[in-house]
Amino acid sequence: MALYMKERFYSLDVFRGSTVALMILVNNPGTWSHIFPPLEHASWHGVTPTDLVFPFFLFAVGNAMAFVMPRIEEKGEGHFWYKVIKRSLLIFFIGLFLNWFPFIKYNDAGNIVAKPFETLRIFGVLQRIAVSYFFASIIVHYFKVRGSFVAGAFILLGYWFLCIAANPSDPFSLNGWFGTNIDKAVLGEKHMYHGEGVAFDPEGLMNSFAAIVQVILGYLVGNYILQKGKTHEMLNGLFVAGCVLIFAGFCWDMIFPINKKIWTSSYTIYTTGLALLILSLFIYLIEFRNSKGWWSRFFDVFGKNALFIFAMSALIPKTLWLIRISNGVNDSGKPKYLNPLNWFYEHICKPIIPSDPRIGSLLYALCFIGMMWFLAWLLDRKKIYIKV
Prior knowledge:
By secondary structure, this protein is mainly alpha-helical. It contains 13 helices and 4 strands. Helix 2 (10-27) crosses helix 9 (265-288), helix 4 (77-100) packs across helix 5 (125-166) and helix 10 (294-304) crosses helix 13 (357-381).
């Protein structure tokens, strides 16, 4: 821990902030009907730039653990469990709160009614972060560095085995993947995500295994950086490890497809490799070349209140959804409405280049990022850091 006090890695803060900014960007287009392909998730197998954002954030969570864990552990076993359980539950229930918020909705008749708990989605992005952080913390606490590496490898291989053993004829398809039946049995179909047209949760129970390893790998990298310090040996090691993991991910993809939605082991390995290369670039530019500037400051403020800003990026649109602005009538003669953010897209962003609504949709997302950055900047300026 003393090494961290001597050497602060500003590049890790910038990397974490960049993942938060990109998560907000890809989650808030002007309309989901018009998105540039790189800003969409892969339909099933494969990976797009958007599919890199979430695993990069989990990797950054693991990086931070390497710096924080020694301070927690030195205060004793009881303090470790208190901090880990408290943080995990807090993040999980914030995610659950956001899934249910604002607790009311407009029905078909235009009346406000309560959102029923019976259809509340239990899991989500913040819940996945909470679960991954909880189990990764326990593993690195008890197994230490070498043991955590072995445990991570065992989990990745074990998850691969489970997928095949549960359904040898069709293990990796939407309908064939074994985890959905477990989610249905434990959570219930009504409490699951239905964005694929059926009850299937990309942040469910069984696809959490490899996500936990994503955090463990982030921890191992953070520990390696701490041990080596700001040296070329450290930088070269990160670059080589990144290349090896990318190659390993591609090879594994041949028999265990890279897939975010069921968070395959090959996906974890491949995205961790890419995260290492990008982190290596950040470290080189910031720590070795001292190439700091507007770009690093832009991302840094996101990283200082990472989970709070991400939560607000969901809370603000959900709150503004309650405000309805008249927008004519539909084909059936019923009134149509826009909320303030929809209005901004339809009347400000979309008309700029009406021939390609994808540009207006992207412009809206960039404006939304700007709004969230301003909030993050205000908090940083006033030295307000909300730790979750």
